[in-house]
Amino acid sequence: MGKVVMYGSVSVDGFIADEIDQPGPLFDLLTSGDVPLDESGVLKVSQGSYDYTRAYWDQIGVSIVGRHVFDMTDGWDGIPPSGVEHVGVVTHRPQPAGWDPEAPFHFVDGIDAAVIMAQELAGERIVEVAAGEVGGQVLAAGLVDEVRMDVAPVVFGSGKRYFGLVHAQHLLEDPDVVIQGNRVLHLRYRVRR
């Protein structure tokens, strides 16, 4: 099975969005360079960010998100983001009325079931878990192998926490990747077992 990676952009003080779910300058890195990150040509990053991010995106088989993120993005109109093949949506509610049953989104009740489903679909590829409440729950359950953070040079002061409501200490190894890009510091930590 591929590894499970918790990932997200984060402020220096540990938030993935402000109090009203806006990421603000957390995504400035995506328009701060001159190297196209995808086919759209809209996302342009520094060469260092491109090398790190593109290689990572190309390894992701399945992303896991919570229902809140799914609803905020309108389910990406049924097309998984960043070229990901499948999205697992952790939810206690049914899929939206009129949702296309052919869209590669899987509505799963609970994080354990979501990770099992995602690993089966991903095979040897990475299972990415979005930072925030769902990511924090997956970390607390001991199912995360690696934590990746794109740290933006901004202090929010309050908002939605990167690790959600984690209430216990979780040790990470020393960072094995530290890459500076424009408006971002990319960090990668293995979870200590």
Automatic annotation (TrEMBL):
Bacterial bifunctional deaminase-reductase C-terminal domain residues: 122-171
Cited Pfam families: RibD_C
Organism expressing this protein natively: Paeniglutamicibacter terrestris
Top-rank taxon, per record: Bacteria
Name this protein carries in UniProt: Dihydrofolate reductase
